[in-house]
Amino acid sequence: MAVTQADRARDAFLAAAARTGQARAQEALARRWQPRLIAHAWRLTGDMELAREAVQDAWVEIITGLHRLREDRAFALWAWRITTRRCARLIGGRQARRRLQAAASAEPPPAPAVDPERGADAARIAQAMQSLPPAQRAAMWLFHIEDLSVAEIAVALDVPAGTVKTRLMHARRTLRETLTGGDDV
Residue 179 to residues 23, 166, 176: CA-CA distances in angstroms? Predict the structure, then answer.
């Protein structure tokens, strides 16, 4: 599911067209990015309802703020960053972090897509990824699945690059311990 240069060029074209007010381009961006932004927001919040709310708010900001996007090719990073900030605002607005954690654990995670050729290993990895803290899970997803660089992830998550590296390091360590049963390999 790596993003190709053609995908980035298409996003840049759609962002430029949407900036001029073309409703079809705005709709195409929404159709293309809605599932990915919801998945990203869910990884950050752990709550599907909160994720949908964050993405809905993010789309308002994205569409109304397209005129501020200086580089059309940066649309994806910009959209992820806006979504990340919306998630942070919604989480920050919640009174008790414990209630958020309880809701996240009660909400069944989306079923991970399992490639039949990889079978049980892919299912174990997907399950281990679900056990990571949201910030680490988001960084791992953006790095390994969305194929973003550390610098791009830093922009998307609105954190320093060093923080991204630390999250990736801790996530890898946790995954290694989970998948190998705690044995150092």
Answer: 47, 20, 5
- CA atoms 83, 88, 93, 95: torsion sign: positive
Q: What is the mean pLDDT of each run of 10 residues along the chain (185 residues)?
A: 79 92 93 95 92 95 91 90 92 56 53 56 81 89 89 88 94 90 61
d(CA 20, CA 16): 7
At 78-106, the pLDDT tens digits run 999 999 999 988 887 764 445 445 555 55
CATH topology of domain 111-185: Arc Repressor Mutant, subunit A (1.10.10)
CATH of the domain spanning 1-107, picked from 1.10.3720.10, 3.10.20.440, 1.10.1740.10, 3.40.50.2000 = 1.10.1740.10
The set of residues, in sequence order, having a beta carbon less than 8 Å from that of 181 and lying 6+ positions away, is none
Ranges of each domain in the chain: 1-107, 111-185
Contacts of 42 (CB under 8 A, 6+ apart): 48, 51, 109, 110
Interval 53-74: pLDDT, tens? 999 999 999 999 999 888 888 8
| Alpha carbons 25 and 16: distance in angstroms, whole number | 9
